[in-house]
Amino acid sequence: MAGFSLQQRLEQARRRQFVGRVSERDRLRAALSEPDLPFSVLHIFGPGGIGKTTLLREYGYIAHELGIQSVRLDGRHIEAAPDFFLAALGQALALPPDADVVGHLADRGERLLLLVDTYELLTPIDGWLREQFLPALPATVLVVLAGRQPPAAPWRTDAGWQTMMRILPLRNLTPADSRVFLEGRGVPAAQIDRVLDFTHGHALALSLVADFFDQRPEAAFQPEAAPDIVKTLLEEFVQGVPSSAHRAALEACALVRLMTESLLATMLKQQDAHDLFEWLRGLSFIEADRRGIFPHDLAREALTADLKWRDPDGYAELHARARGYYMQRVQHGAGPEQRRLLADYIYLHRDNPSVRPFFLWQESGTVFTDGLRPDDVEELPEMVARHEGAESAALAAHWLARQPEGFRVLREAGGAPVGFLTFVRLEATTPADRETDPALSAVWPLLAGNPPRGGETASYFRFWMARETYQSVSPEHTRLVLNMMQHYLVTPGLALSFVVLADPEFWRPAFEYADMTRFTAADFTVGGRRYGVYGHDWRTTPPSAWLALMAERELNMGAPPSRPAAEPLIVLSDASFATAVRDALRDFTDTAALTASPLLRSRLVLGQTGSDAATTARVTALRKLLRETAEGLQESPRLVKFYRALYHTYLQPAATQEQAAEVLDLPFSTYRRHLRSGIEELTGRLWLREIGNLEA
């Protein structure tokens, strides 16, 4: 193989190990061989580890054989925003940074295969890709999208895309193809049948078995009757690594988001980690990008869980070394690099058991953060009015005019806001500002008693909310909190920070855990609604010390505040109760969202569970109450139609309300009337139980 580059040798090795997927390969080869492409988009979907990335790599080889250029993008390396996607595509095409990418593709006149991997991470721009980017491409471009989820409904219901798109679910390899793969990897013939019975053709599992025999060629494979194939295989594999140093390298790689050679050396306290890093690179379940290497998601989860259980002290030590590595570089970083390092740091805390009920860390990529746009001046106050009323909306408009630079907007694919936050620079406010906004007049005595010094700043997160879920647990909420954390860590001279909460008691465990003090003296009322305030003095506990404290609490090295054994009952007005019931119906199938329902601390629910019941038990009780009360409507012939509307909208929901109306064979206006009546009837029955006029 003299004269071949390492890249060429890698490609040859990969092709030799590729087996099966005959129909999938034939479909692409046939399409690319047609004078006119029979379709423009091929959407491949399947679970993690099934082989999507490997198939896309094979598609690139097929295109090369046919003399067609291919370009591969990975959603893991692209921020989910149109500009970033176009920039990544332009870079892959070797275009200048300011080039018109779509125009270039239209002008080139040659066939192109565009491969987009890990498409599930590009969900925020799915609409933009479907409605703007893809329709603008010339007919010579074939796009392959590969992700874990099938195409969203707008793809499947659009008559045009029904014609121009093909959907390809990816399944496990056949027994015959699996056997060929194992034979090619040198797995002993006597062991293959046992391996096939264990892996069932799962691509990642097959690769792990092959790696197992690479490390222990004389071993007898003893499959266990375990539901998690990957976990079991990894346990077996780790036992056979070349040395304890190799094992430590593998565990370190699983802990962080992206592993580099320098980070590995730091985590293992070695001067030179090159050989270990290269060993990691060679493992079948380790992938690479331009910034580092990382294990497959399933492998990561299994390795991390095993380490935490088996060696908690070792886990804590690796965590501390990674934390120190990131924070040292954060302090010397700037701009996008600094934000990337912060994201890497935050990833270390993804499994924090004390805050996990309050955040959906894994869903934080469903929207992207942006600055203000002209339309936001009207849309954001409308969002505030919907959740907090007209008086609060007027105050939001005030700060839009006074400090627009403090607004951070979360956007979905088309650019519409799905949430926002704004911080007010307190030192830049005027007496008129403080007269206008009760929030500022309430917090000002705290600031006056402990004022920022010259060059210092104080931030007040005055408004923060998601469009649909307000301040409840949601993916948007998580992204808003991440923006707050970034502000805490990167704002020069930050002395004090405050944040407003509509339900401060619900969030007390999370905020106290995060060393945020409850300032009841700063509570205020707007539009008849009272708001609570938490804050932190960054001069007494600066960001580095604060992060260390969070890490200690995560690793159970300290004693973080805990939720009281018995939660206080809250008294809801009839209007608040009705709103809470509507929200609970909307979130009926979403456990995370239901954890934020005020009904969990109502007489209605606590009367069923007791005041010391766990959150999960109260969520279960709430679901049962909603379902049973709705089903009770069937006892009246007049109310059956209302129950059916509730059932197909919330209890066993159709994809859309329009589809629910179709299932019920009703005009949409009639369906909406039945749904409103059903909600009112159900709310009335639950209200009677809440106020004690109906026995449980």
Gyration radius over CA: 28 Å
CATH topology value of the largest domain: Aminopeptidase
Percentage of β-strand residues: 5-15%
So what's the overall shape? globular
Overall pLDDT metric: 83
CATH architecture of the largest domain: 3-Layer(aba) Sandwich
Biggest sheet statistics: 8 strands, mixed
Count of folded domains:
4
Helix content: 40-55%
Runs in which pLDDT lies below 50 for 5 or more consecutive residues are: 224-228, 361-365, 557-566, 692-696
Assign the CATH superfamily of the largest domain.
Gcn5-related N-acetyltransferase (GNAT)
Q: How many separate helices?
A: 32
Total DSSP E strands: 15
Distance between the termini: 79 Å
Given helix and strand content, the structural type is alpha/beta
* CATH class term of the largest domain: Alpha Beta
